[in-house]
Amino acid sequence: VQLVESGGGLVQPGGSLKLSCAASGFAFSRYPMTWYRQAPGKERELVASISSAGGITNYADSVKGRFTISRDNVKNTVYLQLNSLKPEDTAVYFCNRRGYDDWGQGTQVTVSS
To answer: For 22-69, how does the pLDDT look when each residue is reduced to its tens digit (9 = 90+)?
Structure first.
């Protein structure tokens, strides 16, 4: 199993980023996927999840209305669109195959002026 996140960077407050996670080594379309984040000195927290077919999504209250999770089961990729970014969104973002201890290296998102 391999999960490779990309798309992070430095952005000003109010800006946007789109994160991608390319998955391989398992039947991607059969599994729900999630995005987590971990800020310095804090525990990893669940940000968003999406069902295997993409029809059901859930979000942490802290990102609801600002972040959108989606997936492309042909490209074996899950995405996280981050809008209206705040400094408190600064963290390393990871994707995960829900229920499994599969993690990528993460992608750093820094929100700062």
So the answer is: 999 999 999 999 999 999 999 999 999 999 999 999 999 999 999 999
Which of 25, 12, 31, 24 lies closest to 84, judged by CA? Answer: 12
Is the separation of the CB atoms in 108 and 8 below 8 Å? yes
How many helices (H) and strands (E) would you count in the chain?
A: 0, 10
Helix, strand, coil: what percent of the chain each, to 5?
A: 5, 50, 45
The b-or-e profile of 4-37 (16+ CB within 10 A means b, else e) is ebebbeebeeeeebebbbbbeeeebeebbbbbbb
60-73: pLDDT as tens digits: 999 999 999 999 99
Q: What is the dihedral of CA 68, 34, 19, 1, to 10 degrees?
A: -150
Which of 96, 82, 89 has its CA nearest to residue 110? 89
